[in-house]
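Dear Dr. H.,

I hope your travels went smoothly. While you were away I took the liberty of generating a structure for the chain from your last submission, since the lab meeting agenda had it listed for discussion. I wanted you to have the full record in hand beforehand rather than looking at slides cold. The sequence, exactly as received, is reproduced here:
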Amino acid sequence: MRGFRVFSGNAHKEFGQEFAKHLDVVLSKIMINRFSDGEIGVQIQESVRGKDVFIIQPTCMPTNDNLMELLIMSDAFKRSSANSITAIIPYFGYARQDRKVAPRVPITAKLVANLIQNAGIDRVITMDLHAGQIQGFFDIPVDNLYGSIIFQDHIRSKKLPNPIIASPDIGGVARARYFGQKLGFDLVIVDKRRERANESEVMNVIGDVQGKDVILVDDMIDTAGTMCKAAQALKDKGATSVMALGTHAILSGPAIERIEESVLDEVIVSNSIPLCKACKKITVLNVAPLFAEVVRRIYHNESVNSLFM
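The corresponding predicted structure, in token form, is as follows:
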């Protein structure tokens, strides 16, 4: 792997170090600084001419800074004659803006895809895109990894006596069903409805959860409002325990406080985003080895899909 170089931006240096450790390489040197007006400056501190470069940079909070850092790093590598540039983006920011939901609004996920390609990136590796169709926004290869491969082993190790999968809303049914099929568990749905403007949501549980150990599945946990309300509805319907899985722990605003005060027994997330604050209910699973194995396979022209079969 002599032609292989791994660089990490500032978004998640711990992930970069874990990633490099599992590939048995050392992170290459790059200096990233800020000018007094906030502009980002980059200087690569070793030659990348003719090398295959991998950049680790989730576009999590602060999203705009981390995205710009990724783009500027990519431009620096392109102008330094790197052979190829692969962006490893464990969490892809702006993925929720994937379509027009109202008149005169942007499709920002497509804009970000254009920016990434124009910066000279040749391939993107990410995990659990909020909307799978974002892969089609790119004209370069995009590997959208499934976090379920990590969560499956953890759930099996729990040996829950009466497990069942739940989607916290109608929009997440396909994701929850896929996860349930992998584990061989049945599925229930929490249907969130607002009967009238300015009234709180009504949570209806579609399916029987009496005496069940419920596993709520979602791709991200942002403010945790829907997740916590869904957990309460499930407990009210007789669930023995409620565990939540969320690949990306955005946890903005009052999310941590809501989780701590909720009836959730445990929240399991990945380290695709650095955890903003410790919480006794939150368990973090390491997905860096999975990304490292994917990169190893890509570099050696081996199958990536076979990892998820």
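Two observations you may find useful: The longest helix spans residues 63-79. The chain has a mean pLDDT of 92.

With kind regards,
E. W.
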